[in-house]
């Protein structure tokens, strides 16, 4: 490796980086009004900061009533999925500089789930759909004394869908889900995929039957919104297609 | 106010809480209370692995693991507990695999293992492959797998319920304190809930948010520690906090030690592999306290990188891109997302980040909480980062925390459920929610001029400046004074959101109160420990003093007749079985 020298990141940080950004946030609090309203906040931001940092600055310096969920702040806990400039993203993984901060940045709750206050939605229907696909390993007897053996190739088969953090960015970006809350939605199918294609699991048929339902995988219209929305880079639409194919061929 | 009755109540739904829940639900009527959703817990942020001497890829055994844990903890580890940790590690990993955890595999199809800091072959000869892992998202996979199994077992969760108080009843004859239940605040509605329970298990995680540069989630505010401490129960070894060597510069986001386990190297501004100077054998894989001090020594001596010389580099550029993609996909993505750096070709700027509380609520090896050096509080349990068993002593080894939550989460779950199967409910006091109501209403109605965010920022800046990797009597005293001032100002804090529904403004005010109380305990404990051991490094007392300080700190809250509180310190002997303290070299 070459000797580290001042690199471009450090050179950039030498000048004052702050710019004024307009955060346009859809506010809703049924304790105050039955209607939601857009509200603008001006915040001083380093463009390399996150949208979550901007929300925190508003909450901590301007308006303590602004309400949103967050925890880890680096894209692993799945708390802060929201609609940012019309696209589902995690506020903690979206940098201001990637959003054209010249214009107001629009932030609103994810769609298709009931808004409870500001950016907070009712996650219960989302988790219910997840629970409904039997999201756990099912095995029958013959338990080994040590670990179950699994080849590298078999392990790789479902690697992509193990990355899911249940943030609901995919499900709440799906037009089918917006129109019909009964649809399982992409996240539940991703988590079914994770077990259907796990060589150790023995309940693939049962899960496929669940997803063969009227509100199952066949509702998917392959719009790829879910794949675009996934902050973990999971190929969600591909996973749904693989489940559809498994239903037809009964091979998985 | 609503009253609920359960045999067992678990506070927290991270790794320890859910591992306990899987056991407790099978044996007793159990409720799990979490201020988040279970899958949001910070176990999910753990990356590198979970230690167990499976010996799948090279010779290893639990005795070596026990020794490494005790040495890593700078001989403040209770050795009986460390032995349990290392022995039960093997079944813990196998249990998780059987629950469905997708570990990376060896070519033979067994669980793959990699190197990690402080884990060695034959008592320090060379690094050993002991960490079982799933890419660099092992914690994520543990959290998901445990949640999946909670769904399977039908565990009952109360999501976004924030536990604010621990109810205790004192036996009028014996003076023994028993657990009665907990009081929780429902975030969605603002309603107060009393949970009467035969057994309560705290598994609510750490308290890293009193530091500014930290790998901890915003929500890690020491809620469990504070709830029991305010009720007169002790906290153990709170001065011992781990600073992980490789946080993303200025942000503190964790970059796993697994990066160095895979061959990553730390370099200063001259490109020098400086760890060779400080740890000739283990080099970049020395224990975390040693590596973090080495990094700051480089920075202080003018060999830090960048215009301000305030960081060093984690260099992965010599590793094949395929290896980074397969073994370290998440952390390389963090570098791209947050720093705009391509780890294939450029080194990553890092600095130590506040990571893990070695101290916490004292327990024995069954997870039973202690009210002094030896007395158990019947019906009260703790496991995971909130607890202090103590298996981590003065410095935790990497991969031992994912292990701790599984071994002691399971133990606490079984012990609590077995206790609640035999025990009776203890009667609730007349106004069980009195304190919580006063606290919540006090904050909601306060018109004081202090703001939560200001006090929290001042606290975090004070902690970073004064009680981080290097400490002296003077810096710690500064911290003690500043914290006292901030605690006084906190009485005058107010919130803007006066509503009941999802009042996160109020929640943050409560959390700040917890952080302030625990910061005070930490600073006062650190001031009294006039030696250097593990994560507690005193420049004015740079060596370990086994004669005076090979003992655990026990901090108690005392309240005088006027209602003023203070922290009283006592000490507890370390359990030594077979390893006498030796000089610690890596």
UniProtKB/TrEMBL annotation, chain A:
Keywords: 2Fe-2S, 3Fe-4S, 4Fe-4S, Iron, Iron-sulfur, Metal-binding, Oxidoreductase, Tricarboxylic acid cycle. Belongs to the succinate dehydrogenase/fumarate reductase iron-sulfur protein family. The lineage of its organism: Bacteria, Bacillati, Actinomycetota, Actinomycetes, Kitasatosporales. It comes from Streptomyces smaragdinus. Residues 19-113 form the 2Fe-2S ferredoxin-type domain. This is Succinate dehydrogenase iron-sulfur subunit. Its cofactor is [2Fe-2S] cluster; [3Fe-4S] cluster; [4Fe-4S] cluster. Pfam families: Fer2_3, Fer4_10. It catalyses: a quinone + succinate = fumarate + a quinol. Binds 1 [2Fe-2S] cluster. Binds 1 [3Fe-4S] cluster. SUPFAM superfamilies: 2Fe-2S ferredoxin-like, alpha-helical ferredoxin. Its EC number is 1.3.5.1. One of its GO terms (biological process) is tricarboxylic acid cycle. Pathway: Carbohydrate metabolism; tricarboxylic acid cycle. One of its GO terms (molecular function) is electron transfer activity. Residues 154-176 form the 4Fe-4S ferredoxin-type domain.
From TrEMBL, chain B:
It is a peripheral membrane protein. Substrate binds at residues 244, 256, 355, 396. Signal peptide: none annotated. It comes from the Bacteria. Pfam families: FAD_binding_2, Succ_DH_flav_C. Its cofactor is FAD. The keyword Transport applies. The active site is at 288 (proton acceptor). The modification Tele-8alpha-FAD histidine is found at residue 42. Pathway: Carbohydrate metabolism; tricarboxylic acid cycle; fumarate from succinate (bacterial route): step 1/1. Keywords: Electron transport, FAD, Flavoprotein, Membrane, Oxidoreductase, Transport, Tricarboxylic acid cycle. It catalyses: a quinone + succinate = fumarate + a quinol. Residues 456-586 form the Fumarate reductase/succinate dehydrogenase flavoprotein-like C-terminal domain. It is found in: Membrane. It is an enzyme of class 1 (oxidoreductase). GO terms for biological process: anaerobic respiration; electron transport chain; tricarboxylic acid cycle. One of its GO terms (cellular component) is plasma membrane. GO terms for molecular function: electron transfer activity; flavin adenine dinucleotide binding; steroid dehydrogenase activity, acting on the CH-CH group of donors; succinate dehydrogenase (quinone) activity. The keyword Magnesium does not apply. FAD binds at residues 12-17, 34-49, 223, 385, 401-402. Flavinylated by SdhE, about 5% flavinylation occurs in the absence of SdhE. Its EC number is 1.3.5.1. Gene3D superfamilies: FAD/NAD(P)-binding domain, Fumarate reductase/succinate dehydrogenase flavoprotein-like, C-terminal domain, succinate dehydrogenase protein domain, Succinate dehydrogenase/fumarate reductase flavoprotein, catalytic domain. Belongs to the FAD-dependent oxidoreductase 2 family. FRD/SDH subfamily. This is Succinate dehydrogenase flavoprotein subunit. It comes from Streptomyces smaragdinus. The gene is sdhA_2.
């Amino acid at each position: 490796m070459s000797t580290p020298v001042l690199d471009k990141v450090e050179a950039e940080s030498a000048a004052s980086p702050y710019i004024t950004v307009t955060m346009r946030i859809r506010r809703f609090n049924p304790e105050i009004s039955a209607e939601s309203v857009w509200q603008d906040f001006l915040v001083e931001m380093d463009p390399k900061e996150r949208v979550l940092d901007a929300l925190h600055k508003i909450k901590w310096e301007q308006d303590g009533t602004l309400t949103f969920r967050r925890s880890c702040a680096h894209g692993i806990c799945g708390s802060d999925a929201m609609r940012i400039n019309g696209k589902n993203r995690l506020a903690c993984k979206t940098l201001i500089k990637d959003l054209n901060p010249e214009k107001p940045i629009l932030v609103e709750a994810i769609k298709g789930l009931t808004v409870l206050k500001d950016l907070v939605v009712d996650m219960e229907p989302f988790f219910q759909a997840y629970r409904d696909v039997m999201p756990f390993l099912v095995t029958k007897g013959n338990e080994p004394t040590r670990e179950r053996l699994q080849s590298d190739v078999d392990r790789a088969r479902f690697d992509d869908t193990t990355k899911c953090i249940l943030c609901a960015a995919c499900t709440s970006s799906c037009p089918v889900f917006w129109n019909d809350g009964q649809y399982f939605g992409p996240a539940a199918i991703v988590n079914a995929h994770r077990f259907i294609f796990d060589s150790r699991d023995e309940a693939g048929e049962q899960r496929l039957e669940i997803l063969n339902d009227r509100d199952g995988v066949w509702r998917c219209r392959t719009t790829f919104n879910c794949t675009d929305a996934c902050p973990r880079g999971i190929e969600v639409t591909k996973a749904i297609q693989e489940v559809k194919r498994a239903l037809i061929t009964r091979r998985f | 106010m609503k009253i609920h009755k359960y045999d067992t109540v678990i506070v927290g739904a991270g790794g320890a809480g859910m591992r306990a829940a899987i056991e407790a639900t099978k044996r007793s009527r159990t409720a799990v209370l979490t201020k988040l959703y279970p899958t949001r817990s910070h176990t999910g942020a753990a990356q590198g692995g979970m230690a167990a001497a499976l010996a799948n890829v090279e010779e290893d055994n639990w005795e070596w693991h026990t020794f490494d844990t005790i040495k890593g903890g700078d001989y403040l580890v209770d050795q009986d507990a460390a032995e349990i940790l290392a022995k039960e590690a093997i079944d813990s990993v196998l249990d998780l695999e059987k629950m469905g955890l997708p570990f990376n595999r060896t070519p033979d199809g067994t669980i793959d293992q990699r190197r990690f800091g402080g884990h060695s072959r034959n008592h320090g000869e060379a690094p050993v492959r002991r960490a079982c892992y799933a890419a660099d998202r092992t914690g994520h996979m543990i959290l998901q797998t445990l949640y999946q199994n909670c769904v399977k077992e039908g565990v009952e969760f109360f999501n976004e319920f924030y536990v604010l108080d621990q109810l205790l009843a004192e036996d009028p004859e014996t003076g023994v304190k028993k657990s009665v239940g907990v009081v929780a605040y429902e975030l969605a509605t603002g309603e107060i809930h009393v949970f009467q329970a035969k057994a309560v298990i705290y598994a609510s995680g750490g308290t890293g948010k009193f530091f500014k540069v930290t790998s901890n989630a915003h929500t890690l505010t020491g809620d469990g520690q504070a709830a029991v401490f305010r009720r007169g129960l002790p906290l153990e070894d709170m001065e011992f906090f781990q600073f992980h060597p490789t946080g993303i510069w200025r942000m503190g986001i964790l970059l796993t030690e697994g990066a160095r386990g895979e061959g990553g190297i730390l370099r200063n501004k001259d490109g020098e592999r400086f760890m060779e100077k400080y740890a000739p054998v283990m080099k970049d894989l020395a224990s975390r306290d040693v590596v973090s001090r080495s990094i700051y020594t480089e920075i202080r001596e003018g060999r830090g990188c960048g215009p301000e010389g305030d960081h060093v580099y984690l260099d992965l550029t010599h590793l094949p891109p395929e290896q980074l993609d397969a073994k370290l996909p998440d952390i390389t993505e963090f570098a791209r997302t947050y720093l705009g750096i391509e780890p294939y070709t450029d080194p990553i700027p890092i600095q130590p980040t506040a990571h893990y509380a070695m101290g916490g609520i004292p327990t024995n090896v069954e997870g039973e909480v202690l009210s002094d050096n030896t007395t158990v509080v019947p019906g009260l349990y703790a496991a995971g980062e909130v607890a202090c068993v103590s298996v981590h002593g003065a410095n935790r080894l990497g991969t031992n925390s994912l292990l701790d939550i599984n071994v002691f989460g399971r133990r606490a779950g079984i012990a609590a459920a077995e206790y609640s199967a035999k025990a009776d409910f203890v009667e609730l006091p007349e106004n069980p929610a009195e304190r919580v109501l006063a606290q919540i209403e006090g904050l909601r109605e306060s018109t004081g001029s202090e703001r939560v965010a200001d006090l929290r920022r001042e606290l975090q800046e004070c902690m970073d400046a004064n009680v981080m990797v290097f400490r002296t009597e003077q810096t710690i005293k500064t911290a003690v004074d500043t914290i006292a001032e901030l605690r006084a100002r906190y009485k005058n804090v107010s919130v803007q959101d006066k509503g009941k529904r999802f009042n996160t403004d109020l929640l943050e005010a409560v959390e700040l109160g917890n952080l302030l109380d625990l910061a005070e305990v930490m600073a006062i404990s650190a001031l009294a420990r006039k030696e250097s051991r593990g994560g507690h490094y005193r420049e004015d007392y740079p060596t370990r003093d086994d004669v005076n300080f090979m003992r655990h700190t026990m901090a108690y809250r005392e309240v005088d007749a006027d209602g003023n509180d203070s922290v009283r310190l006592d000490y507890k002997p370390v359990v030594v079985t077979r390893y006498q303290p030796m000089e610690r070299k890596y």
